[in-house]
Specification:
Layout (H helix, E strand, L loop, with lengths): L1 H66 L1 H11 L6 H5 L2 H19 L3 E8 L4 E5 L8 H6 L1 H9 L4 E3 L5 H4 L5 E8 L6 E9 L2 H11 L6 E6 L5 E4 L27 E7 L2 E9 L11 E7 H5 L2 H26 L1 H18 L14 H38 L5 H16 L3 H18 L5 E3 H18 L4 E6 L8 E3 L3 H12 L7 E10 L2 E8 L6 H10 L4 H4 L14 H12 L4 E6 L5 E8 L10
Parallel strand pairs: 12-14
Antiparallel strand pairs: 1-2, 1-5, 3-4, 4-5, 6-7, 6-10, 8-9, 9-10, 11-13, 14-15, 15-17, 16-17
Helix pairs in contact: 1-8, 2-4, 11-12, 13-14, 14-15, 15-16
């Protein structure tokens, strides 16, 4: 009982407090996440616009340089001498290339200072390379074998961007932002080669530094490519890594979704609010880049953690005081309840002699007296009920065993009289002997007899009926000798055979057959009574299946034709077996009109000396 009191104390006090604290914390977390997510979405959109403008500006300068005719010609003249003047032809190729590279470099620097290198792969397999810092162009064969090359050709002049760490084969050793596009002739719009331009986007660092310095918020900004690689990290820690190694991208953040998301997750081992925004730069030639902002949960929760700690301390002190009160002031009551519960369990197990000791003169003493009086009264009532049930059961068994039908006795005596008139002395003797055997077994006071005696009674009944209904039926009995010494409830098989003769063979024009057999089924004995009679219709089978047994009133109802009682029927046999052996035993009927009837009778296996209480 003390364990239950403690369990109740734990369930109704500690658990609700814990649930209240947990729910409060989760609600606070959800509210904080929702409120901050709105601000985060605005910040991500603002950063996205800045990145969009940065890429758009780079595209504008690239478009200007490519579409300016004289700028294009600088590259063409540096490698193509067709149509050149004599003075130009007299110059060495190396000198011309050096001169044009210098002019091209000036043009590029004036155009956009973020450009770090430009490489033109001409269709005639010639190549122009201009760099403003140490850089190595990608070999033509490697460029043409890269999957992005087909996309560049498909766009036919529109730029295609590759971010740092997205594909280091394209971005080079310096891992710069790289723009690739088809260079078109201004007049004919035919391809003249592939132009690869590498940019150093210093503007990104300035953008993220501005948004990370507002209020000294502990934020981290990442740009993630469509393949999951981190293109840019404002803290330069995880560039080149897969985003899935830092945060759960299966059940947490969906990196393939175009919707803005904000979830409280573990990022790089720390609880954080992770927000994702699609940059939507595809129209500018950029792949499926995502902007990820990570905000430390410590910053978001603020002083809430300290408040929660104080709440835990105060709650713990309150619980300790409550436990002390429980142990000091409620112990006596709990001890008494424990004694009463133990006594009740003993009563539940059937020990009605159990009593609770009376201590003191308070409410617990009154409760003890009431419990003892109640148990005494229950014991008396239970004994009365047992005696009443025993008397009722014996009376019911006596009524059910009223097995001799006057009409059957009259017909048997009439048959004996006819045999006597015909001077059939031997037959008269056998008939009288069989009738005496039936009476001898019927008047025995024992409820159970051996199967051997039951079969003897059954054989006597069948022989009398066979003489009365000559040429109506024949029978066989197949019961193993090892089962004949077992006991069976008296007058079990005869009513079942009577059912076959009176109902199964009614109106038939062929020889009826009755077969009685028995076998062991586990620790039980099963009797099968089979006949080839007219069978039982569905309505009668349904009645037996629903009710399962007849009432005593139905059993003794008199028929209008003969005034004869019906005697023991199939339902009554099932009733007797259920009363005597229990609900696990009884009869099973299987029949159909025109196909005969099979009745299975199941009883427990026991020797003839064993007995069962009624």
């Amino acid at each position: 009982m003390s364990k239950r009191i403690f369990a109740a104390f734990f369930a109704f006090i500690i658990v609700p407090l814990f649930v209240l604290g947990t729910v409060s914390y989760l609600v606070f977390q959800k509210v904080t996440q929702e409120k901050y997510a709105e601000q985060t979405e605005l910040t991500l959109k603002a950063i996205g616009r800045n990145i969009n403008n940065m890429i758009k500006e780079a595209n504008y300068f690239s478009d200007f340089w490519v579409t300016t005719k004289d700028s294009v010609k600088y590259v063409e003249h540096s490698l193509d001498s067709n149509g050149a003047t004599g003075a130009e032809v007299s110059r060495s190729p190396g000198y011309n290339e050096l001169l044009e590279k210098e002019m091209l470099s000036k043009r590029l620097l004036l155009t956009y200072p973020g450009i770090k290198s430009v490489t033109l792969y001409r269709n005639d397999n010639k190549q122009v390379f201009v760099n403003f810092t140490k850089d190595t162009p990608i070999p033509r064969e490697e460029l043409e074998s890269n999957p992005i090359y087909s996309e560049v050709l498909r766009k036919n002049g529109a730029p295609v961007w590759v971010g740092p760490n997205e594909d280091v084969r394209i971005t080079g050793a310096n891992n710069w932002f790289t723009q690739i596009r088809v260079m078109l002739d201004i007049d004919s719009l035919e391809s003249e080669g592939i132009l690869v331009t590498r940019f150093q986007m210093n503007e990104l660092s300035r953008i993220f530094s501005f948004y990370n310095s507002q209020g000294k918020i502990d934020r981290r900004f990442l740009i993630v490519a469509g393949n999951g690689n981190i293109i840019f990290d404002n803290e330069s820690i995880s560039e080149g890594q897969q985003i899935s190694k830092l945060v759960d991208t299966v059940k947490g953040i969906n990196m393939t979704s175009n919707k803005t998301q904000s979830e409280t997750l573990t990022f790089d081992g720390h609880k954080s609010l992770v927000s994702v925004q699609d940059l939507q730069l595809q129209r500018l030639g950029v792949g499926d880049w995502k902007l990820v902002m990570v905000t430390s949960w410590t910053y978001l929760s603020g002083d809430m953690t300290l408040v929660l700690r104080w709440m835990v301390v105060i709650t713990a002190i309150s619980l300790i005081l409550a436990l002390a009160f429980n142990l000091i002031f409620i112990r006596r009551t709990v001890t008494f309840i424990v004694r009463v519960v133990r006594a009740m369990r003993q009563v539940e197990r059937g020990d009605l002699s159990t009593r609770v000791s009376i201590v003191g003169n308070d409410e617990t003493a009154a409760l003890s007296k009431g419990f003892n009086n109640l148990v005494t009264r229950v014991s008396e009532l239970l004994e009365d009920v047992k005696q009443e049930q025993s008397r009722k059961r014996k009376a019911e068994m006596m009524l059910l065993q009223a097995q001799i039908k006057p009409h059957f006795l009259f017909n048997a005596l009439e048959s004996i009289n006819i045999l006597a008139v015909q001077n059939e002395g031997r037959k008269v003797s056998k008939m009288v002997q069989r009738l005496a055997n039936i009476f001898r077994i019927s008047i025995q006071q024992k409820e159970e007899i051996t199967i051997e005696q039951e079969l003897e009674h059954l054989t006597s009944y069948l022989e009398i009926q066979k003489y009365r209904f000559e040429e109506l039926f024949e029978y066989t009995i197949d019961v193993p000798n090892e089962l004949r010494s077992s006991s069976i409830l008296k007058l079990t098989l005869q009513p079942l055979i009577e059912n076959s003769i009176q109902h199964g063979f009614e109106g038939i024009e062929y020889m009826g057959r009755i077969h009685v057999r028995a076998c062991e089924e586990g620790r039980n004995i099963a009797f099968y009574i089979e006949d080839n009679g007219i069978g039982i219709n569905e309505e009668q089978m349904a009645k037996f299946a629903i009710s399962g047994m007849t009432t005593l009133q139905d059993m003794y109802e008199e028929t209008p034709e003969t005034g004869e009682r019906r005697g023991l029927g199939v339902g009554n046999v099932a009733d007797r077996l259920r009363i005597h052996y229990g609900s696990g035993y009884g009869l099973i009927l299987c029949s159909a009109p025109g196909h005969g009837t099979i009745i299975k009778c199941l009883i427990p296996q026991a020797s003839g000396s064993d007995s069962y209480e009624a």
